[in-house]
Amino acid sequence: MEILSSRTLLRPRDYATTLGFYRDVLGLATAREYPGGTVFFAGQGLIEITAHGGTGASSSFDGALWLQVRDLTAAQTELVLAGVKIDREARQEPWGLHEMWIRDPDGIPIVLVQIPEDHPLRRDLRPTSEG
After folding, report:
1. Is the C or the N end of the chain the one with fewer CB within 10 Å?
2. Strand 65-68 and strand 88-92: pairing?
3. H or E segment and range at residue 117
4. Whole-prediction pTM value?
């Protein structure tokens, strides 16, 4: 199987509220719009908020959205000023990442992550020409 593209689809209870959260509060840039839906850029991925295809009731979502930010402290300040409830304030985790947790209007967990300069995710693991 060859995967050409992917995106996360969210079917919220209240389309307008959730659309406003991702667009205005998180400030995600719009990739495209169509009648009844909006697709946002989210780093290397896409998040689609759709007003169709759902049941109108909240569905179970046992995962979380993982969004990497450049400056977690600034993101936390911005969200607090926007009135977003912080579920878990910014802190360094035992695995080395700096994380903060919030939820969207339907309760979907969003993990905002800053990767420190010295974290293994930032290291170039390719062999050197000397080795």
Report:
1. N
2. unpaired
3. none
4. 0.80
Strand 45-50 versus strand 65-68 pairing type: unpaired
pLDDT in tens, the chain (131 residues): 766 678 899 999 899 999 999 999 999 999 999 998 999 999 989 999 998 765 656 566 778 999 999 999 999 999 999 999 999 999 999 888 899 999 999 999 999 999 888 777 777 777 777 65
What homologous superfamily is domain 61-118 in, according to CATH?
2,3-Dihydroxybiphenyl 1,2-Dioxygenase, domain 1 (3.10.180.10)
Amino acid making up residue 38: T
Encoded amino acid at 94, one letter: P
CA R_g for the chain: 17
Q: Residues in the chain, how many?
A: 131
What architecture does CATH give domain 1-54? Roll (3.10)
Domain boundaries, the chain: 1-54, 61-118
